[in-house]
């Protein structure tokens, strides 16, 4: 069997085809209630499948938030597996937002869980935390490269608390965020059109890339930008945060789109409206 195209190339094509929008699948208890679904594993499964049914093949990517499935234990994880399988069948890329990170030997276990071909929990990419050191992520980076999958490493997160850690300056005079971004840039060097080692950079972070010395264009990889919609970011914020790196950005909105459900047509309208907004900010010439 031929090797799959790298994630970065597949994502770049999906963003060209559908616009740079990722819709999060976040079955919050309040949304389950609004959708008249039970707050249990069957509810999160139905919620996820309805989102895939409504938006599969219409957006660049879907991003199930693992936390809302894990809170229902093993049945919740089985529900996540079913949602990922449905998205795969619909031909839509998935980013599993699991934010994993551990010492290298344990990281190998997380890599197998979220990036191995044989794992039903593997999407096309997974989010990782570099808090144990970017070097500890090596097993995930290696397995992602071997399977044509991608990773998004937390760099400048959308929540206000993140700055205290991510803006901190290390012994080499660089901020934590700049250090993480430089590591990704090294790993993505020479990749066309985009590398497969992405970063999470919130759409809400204002001028943090500049103030922390984080060179986003040099990353040469995708930039997952949560914070659109419910967290308050929109066209203006995206353009301001990303500047010259805006062509690399996959903007992400969960509640901002999901609140329109459960009606499939309403979900599609909300996603189309979000896609138009992020496209105007990130690809103004389209
Ligand atoms: O910096 C980050 C990293 C991840 N997230 C996740 O994205 C969604 C955002 O949901 P909204 O409803 O659009 O606010 C959620 O799953 C977060 O865990 C983030 O917000 N910021």
From TrEMBL:
The keyword Transport does not apply. It holds the Pfam family OMPdecase. This is Orotidine 5'-phosphate decarboxylase. Its EC number is 4.1.1.23. One of its GO terms (molecular function) is orotidine-5'-phosphate decarboxylase activity. It catalyses: orotidine 5'-phosphate + H(+) = UMP + CO2. Residues 20-270 form the Orotidine 5'-phosphate decarboxylase domain. Gene3D superfamilies: Aldolase class I. The active site is at residue 99. It comes from Isoptericola haloaureus. CDD domains: OMP_decarboxylase_like. Belongs to the OMP decarboxylase family. Type 2 subfamily. It comes from the Bacteria. Keywords: Decarboxylase, Lyase, Pyrimidine biosynthesis. Pathway: Pyrimidine metabolism; UMP biosynthesis via de novo pathway; UMP from orotate: step 2/2.
